[in-house]
Queue: 2 jobs
Job 1
Amino acid sequence: MIATTVPDVATAAGTAASAWAATPHHHRARALDGIAAALEDDVTGIVEVAAAETSLGRDRITSELARTTFQLRLFADLVREGAHLRTVVSRADPQAPVAPRPDLRRTLVPIGPVAVFAAGNFPLAFSVAGTDTASALAAGCPVVVKVNPGHPRTSDRVARLVTVALRDAGAPDGVFAIVHGFAAGAELVSHPAISAATFTGSVRGGRALFDLAAARPVPIPFFGELGSLNSLTVTAAAARDRGAEIAADLAASVLLGGGQFCTKPGLVLLPRTPEGARVETELARLVAAAPAVILLDDHVHDGFAASCRALEADDRVRLLAAGGVAAGAATPALYAVEGAPLPDVALEECFGPAVVVASYADDAELLTLAGGLPGALTATVHSQAEDSDLLTRLVATLAPRVGRLVFDQYPTGVAVDPAMQHGGPYPSSTDPRFGSVGTAAIDRFLRPIAYQNAPPSILPRELQN
Amino acid sequence: MIATTVPDVATAAGTAASAWAATPHHHRARALDGIAAALEDDVTGIVEVAAAETSLGRDRITSELARTTFQLRLFADLVREGAHLRTVVSRADPQAPVAPRPDLRRTLVPIGPVAVFAAGNFPLAFSVAGTDTASALAAGCPVVVKVNPGHPRTSDRVARLVTVALRDAGAPDGVFAIVHGFAAGAELVSHPAISAATFTGSVRGGRALFDLAAARPVPIPFFGELGSLNSLTVTAAAARDRGAEIAADLAASVLLGGGQFCTKPGLVLLPRTPEGARVETELARLVAAAPAVILLDDHVHDGFAASCRALEADDRVRLLAAGGVAAGAATPALYAVEGAPLPDVALEECFGPAVVVASYADDAELLTLAGGLPGALTATVHSQAEDSDLLTRLVATLAPRVGRLVFDQYPTGVAVDPAMQHGGPYPSSTDPRFGSVGTAAIDRFLRPIAYQNAPPSILPRELQN
């Protein structure tokens, strides 16, 4: 393991901040491209290590590495282009309404060193060189990654590649580092040199770090992506016309990657009609046929088991189907509950291969159920053309609760795109105004600065005439 | 006093949220225009009440009302135009890199009901119908204003006009309300229906409310504008070439409005040269000649007195000049301190007609002093062309600490403009990524939402083809 201490790396990040902020944008872009190239050059080694210490398999690791290098280059291109700075230039105007206006020019500057808490479920794309690191470096912020304990050797290997690539690109010392260990996390988020933090993980762990960030003498923004229920509603017409197809695709979405995606559908709202019952039956058949799955690590395994126990302990929740059983592996599960209001346990994320089906009697009960949903990354609706009135009311109820609305598709699979929003109302995110996927992720690490009546020599390049 | 309870108005705001969010943008714009017109129609009455219960005088009140109506119309125009939604439309692309891309469309939606803590020093422009209220309503958020105790009757009068104008424009019931009283503030920021809060006031009061907002079961963004030191540096060359002019304009900036602006220069860095000493002497002469001033209210008066006592209690701080004395009024004051590091008391905002002059021996000591400054809304530098190397280094040191850099002008007078940034690192703001003046103020109250594969009938107008 790469051995570093939080005070050392945080202080070094603080020292590197001004030099990295002052590094021309195209140099920063070249450094990100260099990291991408270094990861690609080591694809065999990375896949070997990551496959050995996670349960994800070589194909998934390989495609995740491709996503990771794509993201690094996406942010390199973004920084080269410069539109993310949203510059505004207002020339002096002695006749401006209300009061004469001085020459005012506004751009965005890096917020300062960022602490990145790596995710466990994406050992590359949301880990040491993942989207948080890429977007923070692109913004001009040094990065200290708190490594996820689920893949320490992958983290060390990637960290070495990142460090060398940054050095080769002429980046200042201290601009990037990693730390290991649970205690390092709390120490990092509390360190005065750190200006922002990102986190992907559990509600409990994320909230504890959020509380530390808010309680600092100088509070800092904390971008936590915690738990998300990701409801999926099937209308009676959709169950009637596409029930079998929906059941098959939904089961695939729930079971994809062992159910270990933050956008896994966790609650399915089905009509209490014969066609709705057939969707449920088909889902039960598919879940029962699913093999046991080795989860990411013991921590995730124990969390999944605890969630299942909590569901089974509730009088109103029935276990409808259970999949394969194997030592040390998780058994896929389908639970059912009827009518509004749902028990609290059915409104919490169950991270792993399980899903709860809740049935509704009519549109009114569906809207009541939708109105009781917690904040989430996504909500999905499967409907038919004849549902247009219901759909309008349903969307009005769901939209205030989510960051992304999905229609007749599935929420897993999060496109890396400027139009993506991966972040939603609490507890899915600690700040729903930002997201962690796609180019908008850079917005988290920039703050505005205005130059008033500045001599041209002082102005950043993007604000010059 | 308009008598309302927090649970009543917060719940009503929560109920109004979806209807106001769904109100077409041009209707929202018309409502803002209607508020502006209603305030203008009552200019005589508003000025009379505000002049009677504040010490600001009719001219200032009248010009502040013009600023207030200008702001309301600025946000109306912004909402009509729609660029603040920063929409992105990405059509489906089966050949997209990494993975096929679904149709994705991103816009911004209102964050939900906003609690506005009105400022004491701007009874109109940052109060009941001020920029926080205007930008939140423009964003589509209901508003509950916690009235500032310094101008309750003005607040009630403006609130009645706002309420009627919104009703006349067809806005839903509950979209706007005010509450009075200290206890109502804490209750409001903790109420589950409230989704964000803004605050302008003291570090102590603002931090207490920030802590409440962060400690909620569902934490909410809290935009506090707390205390700002606003350093102003004069180089040796500027003191030599423009010393008398700088002293006169600086004294005017410090004493403007009784020093009760959040951008008042609070610390002046002067060279320890004969020309620097002359600037200090001239400043002392002007401060000594300034009359005593009635401050906004007893709370501000007591705070100013406490700040002055703290400065006078420090061994290293000397009182250089004191202005007029009058019963119940504040005496303008000029303090001096030498060299780095400055005592803590010289690094805190003193809200009112006082300023501290700190002298530096050379460029190195100036840069050391600048490097020890706290986060602030602004920093100002007066220099000459020959200072270009020093200026570059000084700006590199100051920029990470402020939201606005002012050159050869003065920080008081905050232009209402898209290029303005009125917000800086803590403690000047609780979140330096946002500002409270100009069109960018609306960004605080919007969050992104993405529509994936949505039927056209469901898409918000701005996302349709």
Job 2
Amino acid sequence: MKARVHIMLKTGVLDPQGEAVRHALGTLGFEGVTGVRQGKVIELDLAETDRAKAGADVARMCETLLANTVIEQYDVELL
Amino acid sequence: MKARVHIMLKTGVLDPQGEAVRHALGTLGFEGVTGVRQGKVIELDLAETDRAKAGADVARMCETLLANTVIEQYDVELL
């Protein structure tokens, strides 16, 4: 089973990397970009075949390693 | 309009960051993870309201700035 995890900074947390991208897009002539947020996407190949158990496993991976839950939120999608 | 761009290394390109995550998950006891690929996700707020034009604009942003198309592939999703 495959899982995709999106990890983004929580709303309200300053995103300097996204801000840099927004500024760079502006200098390249892309004027209509009003906001940019950058995050991570992690694709996992899992041996587990049970959807419920795989989802719970990936959530535990996020809590313990993949995301910094103080400032980041994560979203698990099973494919 | 909002757009989400996924940028991943192309298949066949070595992903040392993903490999490091896979190894770290193994040492934490998550044995069933057979592969990990890590990429970027960029969320854009666009002033453009026409879907076709917004999609074309974001594709141009990927080609010129957001993705390194030699080793990365991108995928645009309009929300």
